[in-house]
Amino acid sequence: MKKIIWMAALSFFLVGCASTQKLTDVDRKGIKAVQINPDMPKAAQFYYMGPGMAMAGGLLGPIGVFLSADDNKSEAVRIATAIDKSKLDVYKITYEELSAALEKSGKLPLAKESSPDVTKLNIYVFQMGFSIPNGFSSKLVPLLGVRASLVDSSNRILWTDVERTMTLGNPSDGHTLDELLGDPNLLEQEMRLAAKDVAAGLVKDL
């Protein structure tokens, strides 16, 4: 079981992997203002690994595409359906938490309004979901994977980074599947915890 959990965690880690690029001092000094782009692709891969799921867990595709009645994925179907019905917007949550973290850090000047020479911070949520933190747990923790990049007015990439929450060292203490299914607000609370964690990592690397 430990090997299965490790392999599933590895699949979460590998998706969205890309080369990172540090922000040079020259490029940093050239940034007049940064606008966080609210428009982002909405095709995050749904990840689920629940208690006793064995090899049925892992990457399951975008929620809208994934939802099916496979018996081996019944837990995943239930939580994906709950997320879908609750209208949980992980993209909006990620945008809000990254905006707040960047503003609080004071690392880069934020644009008050859009302009031709503004530098854009683009966000791509490539994965979201829930997993048990280890093979002995019955609780689920939130997982979120985000890639972000700074792009200048000529579309030149100045900086790019990837951050994700993992099962180990997760910002949440975890909740059972029934607890998550019984409270839509809890689903949002857990994903916001993950978004705060990811946002802090991204801003730290700027």
Structural write-up:
By secondary structure, this protein is of the alpha/beta class. The protein has seven helices and six strands, in the order H-H-E-E-E-H-H-H-E-E-E-H-H. The chain has helices spanning 2-14, 25-30, 63-66, 74-86, 90-105, 177-182, 184-204, and strands at residues 34-36, 45-49, 58-59, 119-131, 141-151, 157-164. Strands 1, 2, 3, 4, 5 and 6 form a six-stranded mixed sheet that branches. Strand 5 and strand 6 form a beta hairpin. Helix 5 (90-105) crosses helix 7 (184-204). It is elongated, with a radius of gyration of 18 Å. The termini are far apart. Residues 1-16 and 64-72 have low confidence and may be disordered.
Report the uncertain regions: 1-16, 64-72
Along the chain, the helix and strand elements come as: HHEEEHHHEEEHH
N-to-C CA distance: 38 Å
Structural class: alpha/beta
Number of continuous helical runs: 7
- How would you sum up the major sheet? 6 strands, mixed
Average pLDDT, all residues: 83
Please specify the SSE layout and strand pairing.
Elements: H1 2-14, H2 25-30, E1 34-36, E2 45-49, E3 58-59, H3 63-66, H4 74-86, H5 90-105, E4 119-131, E5 141-151, E6 157-164, H6 177-182, H7 184-204
Helix pairs in contact: 5-7
From the structure above, extract its key features.
6 strands; disordered N terminus; 7 helices; alpha/beta; elongated; 206 residues
